């Protein structure tokens, strides 16, 4: 039987269940009350600001009935109900790890072993079935990439993919861009050169957090695509050279692109970016657009370069990569804050024509979370 | 007379000018060579990767003539020229401050004193003159907001503003959204309620880094807009409560919006976000969409709330705000990673109709940098 007790000063509540004991502050409980005066019943947005919450908020009464906690607060006498399951799910009286270099929730690191089960969806199913769509989006949240097959082979089909979850991010490259050999390329992507695994547009802040590449023709020799898990690479670097890992997190690199008129994109971000709690947040890696490193102190520059070289070697290691050659009507999407993509050089008689566009993760994760809520509600 | 010397092992070069002595590593110099084999002469992108740079790179020869440094490297015998001015501008042998809570380069903090000289541009000038456009964009880079006057009073005129520098970021709210009173509002923005100063969509990751709000009607009573410099507020908090400032940087807050079907946006980011070197990077503050704080340890929660309350009080302090009532044909733009915006409640016989949209800073800063390069080249 769960039980609640209040501290003598009314500033804390302790919830004792069979398995655990969780403390909450009166102010936190008052701030998170769910009632029509605190939150809008329609859209769930909070109606009050901190100025409406007395600093000296206390608990004056607490009772627990059938999984519902009923609380009364002083000094204003406000009362509110809390679902016990909600309280346990939102408890903060727990260990809060802060070591650097942890995977975010709901992600798994991967290496070339994933070649055996490349996350893939078929467009007709994913477009028609909520569960197939949720499964495909879940792959992207977990692995940071997924393939899509069975698209109609037509220019602009990449927008059909973005329409499944969100919105295109337009840039100076257009709403979409043509990836094929050009005579005077504004970007090395528009040549037949092989490209080392990279994240796109690290010189852009905010960086586009998703990229879609869709294949319309691929009869040239070569031109395979590779994807590499930047988080797995960062963790491998941390294992073999923890100080080097720290250097790549601690100092900002600079990236730059000024390949066409009227454009001078610049950013200052670390190659490995951590959230304040040490969770891996983003990887930026692009040998074409990295600018001179000026934010690393002289005495650390050699060690920084050594770590940068090790990370580059890990990224180039075929043990880390998943490879596929796209057929017309196939595409892939990458989480551009995490997964690097590469291509082999191509040549010969045939043609290679891909179309690319950017989009953002907010819409993708929102669509997935909404589908998951819907599935839970139906279950 | 500038002079250069090489270290005995060839791994360092020292550049001695009248005023300073700057050291560079051989590897850094080789990596940043500007020649047709290292960088594409057309688009400036680097053609080599770390695998092409020998780890044991050394300098074997150095000579300085008329502001140009000519270097030869071992073991591969590569040689390259460096402009002395470029070297000094990109030097890293210098103090690299890392204290928390510094303004980014090219920004100035501000308070209500800025009411006397609100950064403003007139659309016809800004659209037609490069120098007027650069000046208006520079206001936004420096202060994080600017007004725009003399727009044609017509629906969609806010896109004219975005076209000056970049691209709209479409979201679940549309390419643009109507800010006026609705009967069943999916967002409290679509009511006549006053709104505390906030950044928009902190529940979105990446957050839209620019917002434009354009006025088509404003005959209601009230409805003034206020803007507040989030960086100035963060620095004031740091002054009065440095430990509290650290708590708001150190622990992630959570934000959430699920006000309409199919949407469940969630983020986990600190209210005050620092770059790894301690520079202020972003402020997120929104009493409507902050979710329960679960990433703050129990023992720090009261101190965290106290700091959150202080920051809220600073934000509400009229000494921090710039206020204006938009006329039809007027608009303003905010750097949504820094500047909070608010509105007074409105009511009465008249109407208030604004249109809003999001865009991103990458395009704005790129356009400004390109205009500045062009002005320098012409000077």
From TrEMBL, chains A, B:
- Provide the TauD/TfdA-like domain boundaries: 120-358
One Gene Ontology term from the biological process aspect of the record: carnitine biosynthetic process
Under Enzyme Commission nomenclature, its number is 1.14.11.1
The molecular function GO annotations come to: gamma-butyrobetaine dioxygenase activity; metal ion binding
Any one Pfam family here would be TauD
* Gene3D superfamilies for the chain: 3.30.2020.30, Clavaminate synthase-like
Keywords assigned by UniProt, alphabetized:
Dioxygenase, Iron, Metal-binding, Oxidoreductase
Cofactor(s) named in the record: Fe(2+); L-ascorbate
The family assignment reads: Belongs to the gamma-BBH/TMLD family.
Q: Which PANTHER family match?
A: GAMMA-BUTYROBETAINE HYDROXYLASE-RELATED, OXIDOREDUCTASE AIM17-RELATED
**Any idea what this protein is called?**
Gamma-butyrobetaine dioxygenase
Naturally occurring in which organism (per UniProt): Shimia marina
